[in-house]
Input
Amino acid sequence: QGFEEENRDNGEKIRPTVYPVKLLEVFMYYTYVLRSKKDGKFYTGFTSDLKLRFEKHQKGQVESTKDRRPLELIYYEACIDRNDATHREKYLKTYHGRMFIKKRLKSYLTR
Output
């Protein structure tokens, strides 16, 4: 079934030895940007579970965005280090960070 090879001496099917490989478990932190479809403004945050955090935003369970729904996830970055994610979040909240997002997503934001 894909892994079997024919032994050239007698035609017998053999299976190569497979050694288990433990994959590294990497914990990721996400810096993300939401855009309110209600007022067009951005919200920037960070989390270790992007899917769950976005669901909480969508359900109105996040105080700072509950009155700005519906929201769309327009950008995210993944970091291995929590400090890197929080520093990136702080940067994206600055004037230069907002300009970075607008330039990075120029085509998307102007459609």
Q: What stands out?
A: The first helix runs from residue 50 to 58. The chain has a mean pLDDT of 89. The helical segments are 50-58, 82-92, 95-104, 106-109.
